[in-house]
Amino acid sequence: MRILLIVTAAALAITVTVPVFAQSWNVSVDANLTLTQNAYSDNWIRGESGALAWTFNSNSLAEKQLHAKVHNKNTLKLFFGQTHNQNQVTKTWARPVKSTDLIDFESVFRFTLGGFAEPFAAGRVETQFLDASDPEKDRFINPITFTESMGMAKVLIKKKKREWIARLGIGVRQHVNRDVLEPSGTSRKTHTSNDGGIVFVTDFKTPLAQERILYTGKLTIFKALFFSKADELKGKPNENYWKSPDLNWENIFTASITKYVMVNFYLQLLYDKEINLKRRLKQTLALGLTYKLI
Asked: How many other CB atoms sit within 10 Å of the CB of residue 279?
């Protein structure tokens, strides 16, 4: 966090003391809501049950050339959805189950010096609206991962609707998990850990199918070189799991059917050996209403 605060303060100082380019912010906010619903009265006897499923997705972008040598790009992804099911016998509605949940904000300052590659500094926050992993207590905005990184960035493609940028550098992460129930079952405690190492990120977007479909992809690989809890893991089967690279590959395909109707396909591949020895896959296909706020 100290690195992120220093970079942000430096960028703000530049924008205050040096004339800012006249160009305005490039801002876009794409939001969509999907809904599926069916219900039955209590005199149905064939085992039917009602269901309600809804999902909200929002992808936002704000970028600007703050100064001749400073470019700032901010991205925000907000996903949340729930499924409500009706009991087949009593027809009462059960507690909703979360189907998707994500808060992901990243701010990247790229220093456009005109070289083969350009220095960058970035900060990222990853969390979720509702942590329902503990059956005894709902925890909001938990767990949280903060990532600060700096290094060199290379713009591989930069066109009107197509962009490909790769970043390689060093990064540190802070992991916060609040109100964790202790093994004794009588108290709760906030767990924190830190790691740092090499980070590689590539962002790519391009129109497809004669510009009727927009593809946005982001690949993040983090290879830890140190871990604050390493000593506590010595002698255990998982003592070296933290050394394995963490991978997060996100793919979003968005197709506009009409001005207000869209199809959104989200595919995410995750690998974190500390959480699971196998890869984790998430897929969401949604057809619903969309509104381009900006």
From this structure: 11
% of the chain at pLDDT higher than 70:
88
For 13, the enclosing helix (H) or strand (E) is: helix 2-17
- How far is residue 95's CA from residue 107's CA, in Å, rounded to a whole number? 36
Q: Which residues of 77-99 are buried (b: 16+ CB within 10 A; e: fewer)?
A: bbbbbbbbebeeeebeeeeeeee
In three-state secondary structure terms, 91 is coil
pTM to 2 decimal places: 0.86
- Is there a contact between 77 and 125 (Cβ–Cβ < 8 Å)? no
Nearest by Cα to 138 from 104, 101, 174: 101
Domain boundaries, the chain: 2-39+49-292
In whole angstroms, what is the distance from residue 223 CA to residue 253 CA?
A: 28
Candidates 3.90.1690, 2.60.40, 2.40.230, 1.10.150; CATH matching 2-39+49-292: 2.40.230
Q: How far apart are CA 1 and CA 19, in angstroms?
A: 28
Q: Is the pLDDT of residue 271 over 90?
A: yes
